[in-house]
Each structure stands twice: as C-alpha cells, then as structure tokens.
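Quick one: structure tokens for this chain, please?
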Amino acid sequence: MAEMNSSARNGDILLRVEGLKMHFPITQGIILQRQVGTIKAVDGIDFYIRRGETLGLVGESGCGKSTTGRAILQLYRPTAGHVYFEGQDLTQMKGEQLRQQRRKMQMIFQDPYASLNPRMTVGNIIGEPLEVHNIARGKEKRDRVMELLQVVGLNPYFINRYPHEFSGGQRQRIGIARALAVNPDFIVCDEPISALDVSIQAQIINLLEELQEKFGLTYLFIAHDLSVVRHISNRVAVMYLGKIVEMTDRDTLYENPLHPYTQALLSAVPIPDPEIEAKRQRIILEGDVPSPANPPKGCNFCTRCPRVMDICKEEEPPFKDLGNEHYVACFLYD
C-alpha cells in the first residue's frame, strides 16, 4: 500500500481505494467447469479522490480502467481490497445498506447507444432512478425529469421520445441526466466521449465541467485520450496491465513524467507546433502488452520497458511517494 502523506490524509477525501483486486476465473469444460487460470484485470491498486476534484485514469485498452470503475461502484464485487466511500467500506456492505450508498454514486457509460433501453422513453429512462430510490413519482417525477433535461442542454419536451430518435451526443446527455437524477456526490465517467464525434466531444467535456461546478460533483474520469484528461483532470493516474504505475497532479505529470510507460504515452501525443514536433523524439515501445492471465514476473512493464534492469524482472517495484504526492512504481527512483 502506498504511504499517503499528511496533506492527502488531512484533505477531505471522498473515496479511498486500498489494495483493490478484480480477478476473473478462466474455466474449462461444459458440464463440470473447473478453474484453470485467472485473468488479473485489476491487481492491487491504491488511490484516493478528494471531494470536488477529478481524477483522470488513463492507460491503453484492456489495462483494467473500466473494471476499476465498476469494482469501485460494486457492480463487480472485488476479489480483494477495500473501497472506502465517506469513510465506509463498500466491500463489506450488502442489500439495503449498499443500495443507500449507491444513491450517492453513479456511472456515465461509454457507449450511449448500448446504455439506454430502446424500449423506454427518455422520461422513463431518466425517471427510473427516482422511482427505484423512492425520490419522486407522478407529476413530481415528470417535473424533475424535465428539469434534468434542461440542465444537460436538451429540450424538456423530448420526454416522450425514444433513444433511437437522438444523435450520439444527445444520447450521452440523456445518460448524464440519468446519472444526475438522484443528486449523487461521485460519478464514474467511463470513457464518456470515446464513442462520439470529435466535434461533440468538447461539448460533453464542457457540460461535465459545468455540472461539476454547479453541483459540487467528484469525478473518476476514465479515458485513453491524454489531451482530454489534461483538460478535465486535477490529478492523473496512469494504469498498465492492472496496476497504477504513476499518479500525480496534472501539470507535474505532463511536464515531468517519471515512469518509462508514462513517458512513452506522452511522447505519442501530438503537439500543435510544427517546429517542436519535428525536433521531438518519439518513444516506440517494443512488443505487445502481456496477457492479464499471465503477467510477467517482477514489474508488469519489464517486457517492454526501454530502461529495464535485472531487478525489474525479479521483484515488483513498490508504489511510493517521491514527494509532493507524486507516486511512482519504478526501481529507477529507489
């Protein structure tokens, strides 16, 4: 577990994740299914999010970002570890107690086409959480839904329309309105713009920022587009093959990345200045990402790291604070 310094401990931490693991069994056989292996989608991660801030979680596809978001909300029950929300451990909760906490936590899904029920009207989609949590019914529910549609920039008279009548950007706004319906404190944004046109992405990002300011929301913003993460996040955590390899505030990460994987990721982000771009050196990683069913011994990144050392292939690097809440898991900084 990374040692959190006093400023992190004293800040108003809304969510704290400790040693979170999410392993999925690999089974064989049709009738007598037996476990023959484990996919280590999330393999022991630690981080915290302060009230009112946005933590960006970045990494390439398949590294465990979305699984982390779902395990925090207990949509997947974690294999091990703890998720403390307002000081209470969600992993120990069940039934009604967990349902009451869920009201404070919501999710905006990646695909606005798959996450809305095509057989329900917009009014029923946004109003469903209000009924589930006994917040409003009848006319009161209808008024609240119309208000939420206005808040996300849609015509309140769209209430009787169906999802297929809307564009991708409008559908994502409906998904955001649904997440806002129960007045949550914390929202997991699971790549909310990756399925949208570039012209619409900026509108959705600006909407999320406006809503955060208006309602005092806290975000875990999952993405693989580093320029978007830089725009919206206060702090950034970089994930590789089920583990967080670096975490610090936004400006420090982009100006002084320490982990070789973070350096490689940032070298791939184009700079809109032809002169700087021409002189810049790209870091090209060799090989493919190892399988989460069979991660390498030692550091997960050792098979692709341009600065690998012997110790990296034998021992797992500790995730430690190098000062000013800049956490890195790398033997280069021992």
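Confidence is low (pLDDT under 50) at residues 1-10.
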